[in-house]
TrEMBL record:
Residues 56-429 form the USP domain. Belongs to the peptidase C19 family. InterPro entries: Papain-like_cys_pep_sf, Peptidase_C19, Peptidase_C19_UCH, USP, USP47_C, USP_CS. PANTHER family: UBIQUITIN CARBOXYL-TERMINAL HYDROLASE (PTHR24006), UBIQUITIN CARBOXYL-TERMINAL HYDROLASE 47 (PTHR24006:SF702). Its EC number is 3.4.19.12. Residues 823-833 have a biased composition (Polar residues). It catalyses: Thiol-dependent hydrolysis of ester, thioester, amide, peptide and isopeptide bonds formed by the C-terminal Gly of ubiquitin (a 76-residue protein attached to proteins as an intracellular targeting signal). Residues 814-865 are annotated as: Disordered. GO terms for cellular component: cytosol; nucleus. It comes from Acrobeloides nanus. This is Ubiquitin carboxyl-terminal hydrolase 47.
Length: 1266
């Protein structure tokens, strides 16, 4: 006998084949009730149903294997399938998609008649009301079964099938409590649709051996005695009692769930129980049925309702079990199975003992762990008496040996140890009632009509699918200046379409351009449209499939990329398209000086041996607007940008006779060439400027090349307060920009250039040095930050409007200036800048002008205004002092930039030959690098500003610009680099003076700003101060107040005075010093810092968080002294009261007596009845809130009227107290377990895995009617 392949078990996302098994000596009943053995060939030939039709599988949408297993089980239930077939849908076509019974009927009929290998279940899940993503959530098959039955019952409320679920699956039981003294019973009738049987008793190490043992434990009563005695109404006293369940009726179809998923209370994780648990093919339940005639229920209707979870968890006598590691004999397991037809003598003998004898027909198997896995099912065709394995799309014959491997345990080997039965379906053996499947030839008339309709629909779907699979995605663009900026247009076109039809469809997409077919051609391009590969000719002789890629076409849809090329007239010749190395790919951009935008206008190919003049003539003939009149084509200016080298200069192609190839440095790259355009008068005026770098054309290109956008997340009001600064929204006076500053309203089509910008150059300084600048706080040793928070006299800039932009080519930060002054041997106050700016009395600050110069990016540098001349003497001195330093920085940058050069420098003759008049960068001190605000977003939690900056500018200058925008000093904040939206950020406090924005911010997502209210000395650190909240156990939720500088030697009183001042100025809260206390949370408790101490008393962790306690005025009278944290313990209720603090008078001799006196006064308890616990924490490494658990208080914590730990003391610690006369409740083992679980679960860290959505089936408010 040849060996048979085992079933292929498909985990969601992986497929593996189990070990092949042999079918020899495996008796399988034949359809004529005679046992026979299958050959290898017969095994596959018998993969048909009772109609001779091959079984059809179900497609797994994503993780819907549990749904497929249940649907196939219901389909293979004769009574359920027949009822579905007989039911007739009376709704309209629009309601079909929402009707669950209708979709089940359609799916069942197609499973019986379709010739497909597998069917989709999307229409069924759509009727559930599922979204597409819900197919990616795996759920429990038993939960789905209950939900589906509930949905069907509601749908069938007014139909002929209204009692179908109850008739097939409903069983009944009695939930009873019986007094052992008077024998009186309280009974509550209940029903069930499935029986949940425990695999392993709660707390046991060994599992039940079989489902019969689990079922016996299910119905065995629990004895209520001792503290759990039952209050008998008849006896009028507590009595021992029996509490349990009695099954009074088993359903026709019995569903049994094996509770393999459990919760480990030690690890607090879900686990799966893979223990071996056998089940028979013929199940005799006569011994488990209760004779209701012997029950004498009481007239009382009240009875406690219990859940299935409590049923499985209740105690029961230890079962006879087997150990997991015990050697198992599969032959013994086979003897448990009758393995006979239902009309055999063995079965008849069982029926003679009672009617409750059941036949196994479905085993739903789970393969995997508690966190996920795969479901499939072994299902028996009861008409053929044959077993099949339904594993999603795959259906094949199964052997009894394979089914018995699902008992569980380790018998199946390592690969099968996590594969076991999870849900079983039995049918009652009742020959007169047992139905047979409706044969295909006997289908009801309404199904025959629907079958033809559905088959046509399925054929149409198949045809549509084949059509979809034959489609090629055509990405289309047009080589026209009005469309090159648009995204490619996607078209879905069949492979067999001729290229002429493709062009016709393409031209329809560009009707608005009014293109003539004779002036258009089709060019095949690369995927990014940067390479033009081939101009397609002989369109009628070629089809789209000739250009569709064939690699991976069976996995992904093929894509092609075409471009419609245009020319102005029919007589105009086409430029030649070639892949040869001598042809250069060119992207042509128009720099419109009138609208101040840069946009692509043409893609073309040009031979390297042709001249620049010929190239100009070509582009002017293709785009006539570039040369008006046509004879002026040589006047247009062309610039080449080498994008590979970010530091490379822009080259002007101004010599017409130079070879085009010599102007393009990188032959393998697409050349980006810019041509000027716009209003004729503006063009002519700009072309007259002799110095190329001063032209508007070059300035626009330079800004386009070197600009970068950076998102800055600004600090919140809370962050301002924590840094001891007044938030901008709460400042009394907000500096306003001068009225004479014009705002920019330029559009941002490609590169937006504002009309004016606020510039800070060596010749123009925009400063506001009026005496109205906010002064420092009266507390000189810790000034309050507002605006320029340090009150530095060197400079104070105006508050910038979001519509202005500021350049800062040579502005040093304050620290840079002071360092430079120190190197020159003079103090900062003696420098020319500080001398001029510090003397407020000797200078009329109101006369200083703030009118900005027009931006040289947009306009020429004009003459200085009168107000600017007022500053010339000061700025010239500043320039002379810092210029040498900045030039040194520039030399360092130039030396570094040379390392990035990839091309060998040619001599001047060669440069002249190429004709590239190159613009060279000047020193840092002379280039007005600008920063412009593009947008401001105030909708989120944090205000965000997006700016456009020159990436060549130094980071120190950019930080200066941010300081001006925030009206802060650069030393009062740190830039934080964020590489995604959610990370914590990387602080970059130390900034390299020569580091550019490109180097600093090229890879970041956004910049954050961390406020620093103080400049720290070398021995100082910032200490975070949070609000002390004794009522909140979660210390992480205590509100942070501010960060304050301090050193080890800082007195506590001085630190507390700082807190008092900042509460008043930042939070507008006034407290007297005696109302404030500093608390230090440690293993010694929440101790109060003494005013006479210094912070050094805290030890090595002197700079960790401190907690500020604010005492209201009305509570101050009874809040003087040493604090003790107290909570009341209620042992009779196993509860703990709210926490509060009491205060012991200083110098108290008998602390215990005084504490009891205060508690008696606060709570009303008699003094002599108050007992105290030890003071906590009593161990090292104990953290807030120092509390004890319920069980620990009940069993371990000692209470007494005398002091229990005099050496430790009570100050700042937690002390429990209780009433001496209150009795302690006797806690059962179950209650202890529940308390322990509750307390442990509070500290469990929440899982970071994606939260699983609950399984749902959407119920319709209107039922199906006849």
């Amino acid at each position: 006998m040849s060996s048979l392949p085992g079933p292929i078990t498909q985990m969601d996302g992986a497929i593996e084949a189990t070990e092949p098994t042999s079918s020899a000596a495996i008796p399988l009943p034949a359809p004529d009730s005679m046992a026979y053995n299958l050959s290898h060939a017969g095994f596959f030939n018998e993969n048909n149903d009772e109609n001779g039709h091959r079984y059809v599988g179900l497609v797994n949408q994503a993780m819907t294997c549990y749904l497929n297993s249940l649907i196939q089980t219901l389909y293979m239930t004769p009574e359920f399938r027949n009822a579905i077939y007989k039911w007739k849908f009376n709704g309209n076509s629009n309601e079909e998609s929402k009707s669950i019974p209708f979709q089940l009927q359609k799916l069942f009929l197609l499973l019986q008649t379709s010739d497909k290998h597998s069917l989709e279940t999307k229409e069924l899940t759509n009727s559930f009301g599922w979204e597409s993503t819900e197919a990616y959530d795996q759920h429990d098959v038993q939960e789905l079964c209950r939900l589906m039955f509930d949905a069907l019952e509601k749908k069938w409320r007014n139909s002929e099938n209204k009692s179908l679920i109850q008739d097939l699956y409903k069983g009944s039981m009695q939930d009873y409590v019986k007094c052992t003294n008077c024998k009186t019973e309280k009974i509550r009738e209940d029903s069930f649709l499935d029986l949940p049987l425990a695999v392993k008793p709660f707390g046991a190490n060994e599992a039940y051996k079989s489902i019969e043992e689990a079922l016996k434990a299910f119905v065995d009563p629990e004895i209520l005695n001792g503290a759990n005695q039952y209050e008998c109404e008849k006896c009028k006293s507590k009595q021992d009692a029996e509490k349990g369940l009695r099954i009074t009726k088993f359903p026709y179809n019995l569903a049994i769930q094996l509770k393999r998923f459990d919760f480990d209370y030690n690890t607090l994780h879900r686990i799966k129980l893979n223990d071996r648990m056998t089940f028979p093919d013929i199940l005799n339940l006569n011994n488990f049925i209760n004779d209701t005639s012997t029950c004498k229920p009481s007239t009382s209707k009240e009875s406690p309702k219990i859940s299935y979870a409590s049923i499985a968890a209740k105690k029961s006598p230890p079962p006879q079990t087997i150990k997991e590691d015990e050697e198992l004999d599969l032959g013994k397991a086979e003897t448990m199975w009758v393995n006979e037809p239902v009309d055999s003598e063995v079965v008849k003998n069982l029926l003679a003992k009672g009617e409750y004898v059941y036949e196994l027909f479905s085993v739903m198997v789970h393969q995997g762990s508690a966190s996920g896995g795969h479901y499939y099912a072994y299902i028996k065709n009861m008409d053929k008496n044959s077993w099949f394995c339904f594993n999603d799309s795959l259906v094949q014959r199964a052997t009894i040996e394979e089914i018995q491997k699902t008992f569980g345990g380790s018998s199946g080997g390592w690969s099968n140890s996590n594969t076991n039965a999870y849900m079983l379906m039995y049918r009652k053996i009742d020959p007169p009632k047992n139905a047979h499947f409706i044969r295909t030839s006997e289908l009801p008339l309404h199904l025959v009509e629907l079958k033809e309709k559905w088959i046509r629909e399925e054929e149409e779907k198949d045809l549509q699918q084949r059509r979809q699979e034959s489609l090629v995605k055509v990405n289309l663009t047009c080589n026209h200046e009005r469309t090159l900026m648009d995204h490619p247009i996607p078209l879905m076109i069949p492979r067999e379409t001729s290229m002429a039809d493709v062009v016709a469809q393409a031209l329809e997409q560009f009707e608005h351009l009014k293109l003539l077919p004779e002036n258009c051609r089709l060019i095949e391009c690369s995927s990014s449209f940067d390479k033009l590969n081939e101009a397609i000719e002989d369109l009628e002789k070629k089809i789209l499939d000739d250009y569709a890629p064939t690699y991976y076409s069976y996995l992904v849809r093929p894509e092609v990329y075409f471009m419609i090329d245009t020319k102005p007239t029919h007589e105009q010749p086409w430029f030649e398209v070639s892949k040869q190395n001598s042809y250069r790919q060119v992207d042509l951009f128009l720099v419109d000086l009138e609208t101040e935008e840069i946009r692509p206008i043409k893609k073309l190919v040009f031979h390297e041996n042709k001249t620049v003049g010929e190239f100009k003539q070509l582009i002017c003939s293709l785009i006539p607007s570039l040369a008006e009149p046509a004879s002026n084509f040589l006047h247009c200016r062309l610039v080449v940008d080498d994008e590979m080298d970010e530091n490379a200069s822009l080259s002007i192609l101004d010599l017409p006779d130079i070879s085009f190839g010599k102007c393009i440095k990188r032959a393998y790259m697409v050349a980006k060439i810019y041509v000027d355009g716009g209003c004729h008068d503006i063009l002519e005026e700009d072309r007259k400027i002799e110095d190329a770098k001063e032209t508007k054309f070059m300035k626009m290109l330079e800004r386009k090349k070197f600009s970068m956008r950076i998102k800055i997340v600004l600090p919140t009001d809370t962050e301002y307060r924590q840094a001891c600064m007044i938030p901008p929204t709460e400042r009394e006076e907000v500096a306003k920009a001068p009225d004479n500053l014009q705002r920019s309203h330029s559009s941002l089509t490609m590169v937006s250039l504002p009309e004016t910008s606020l510039q800070l150059t060596p010749n123009t300084k925009i400063l506001n040095l009026s005496s109205s600048q906010p002064k420092s706080s009266a507390l000189e040793h810790f000034p309050l930050m507002e605006g320029n928070s340090h009150g530095l006299s060197s400079m104070s800039v105006c508050n910038l409007s979001p519509h202005y932009e500021t350049g800062y080519p040579d502005m040093c930060s304050t620290s840079d200036w002071q360092k430079h002054s120190a190197e020159q041997g003079s103090s900062g106050r003696n420098s020319p800048l500080s001398a001029a700016f510090d003397d407020d009395e000797g200078m009329d600050m109101s006369s200083i002008g703030t009118s900005p110069k027009r931006s040289p990016v947009v306009s020429d540098a004009g003459e200085l205004s009168d107000n600017d001349n007022a500053f010339m003497s000061v700025t010239e001195q500043l320039h002379s002092e810092v210029n040498s330093r900045l030039m040194a920085i520039e030399r360092m940058r130039s030396s570094r930039d040379q390392e990035f050069e990839t091309e060998t420098q040619t001599d001047s003759a060669c440069e002249t030959l190429i004709g590239g008049t190159e613009t060279t960068s000047e020193s840092v001190a002379s280039i007005p690098y600008t920063t412009s605000i593009v947008s401001v977003d105030e909708n989120g939690e944090n205000k965000c500003v997006e700016v456009e900056a020159d990436r060549r500018s130094l980071v120190v200058h950019f930080k200066t610009w941010i300081a001006q925008y925030l009206n802060l000093d650069s030393a009062n904040f740190i830039l934080v680099k964020h590489y995604n939206e959610t990370d914590d950020g990387y602080e970059s406090n130390v900034i390299n003076e020569t580091e550019t924005l490109r180097e600093y911010a090229q890879t970041i997502n956004h910049l954050g700003i961390k406020l620093v209210g103080f400049q720290l000395a070398s021995h100082e650190k910032l200490i975070r101060v949070c609000e002390y909240d004794v009522h909140n156990d979660d210390q992480e939720q205590w509100a942070p107040l501010f960060l304050l500088p301090a050193s080890k030697s800082t007195p506590v009183q001085e630190f507390l005075e700082k807190c008092q001042a900042y509460l008043k100025n930042v939070y507008k809260s006034e407290y007297r010093l005696e109302q404030l206390r500093l608390r230090d949370l440690s293993e010694h408790g929440a101790v109060v810092m003494q005013l006479t101490d210094t912070l050094e008393v805290r030890g090595q962790q002197w700079s960790k968080n401190l907690y500020l306690q604010k005492i209201p005025e009305e509570q101050l009278s009874f809040s003087r002294g040493d604090p003790v944290i107290v909570r009341q313990w209620y042992p009779s209720k196993l509860e703990v009261g709210k926490v509060f603090e009491v205060f012991l008078p200083p110098g108290t001799s008998n602390v215990t007596k005084e504490l009891r006196r205060i508690l008696a006064q606060r709570t009303g308890l008699p003094f002599e009845r108050i007992e105290l616990s030890d003071a906590f924490p009593d161990k090292c490494w104990t953290k807030w809130p120092y509390s004890k658990g319920i069980l620990e208080l009940a069993e371990k914590v000692r209470f007494n009227t005398e002091i229990l730990s005099p050496e430790a003391g009570f100050v700042g610690k937690l002390v429990y107290f209780k009433d001496k006369n209150e009795f302690t409740k006797n806690i059962s083992d179950d209650e202890k377990r529940a308390i322990r679980i509750k307390e442990q679960s509070v500290n469990v860290t929440r899982s970071t895995w994606r939260r699983e959505r609950p399984l749902r089936i959407q119920m319709s408010s209107v039922s199906e009617d006849n």
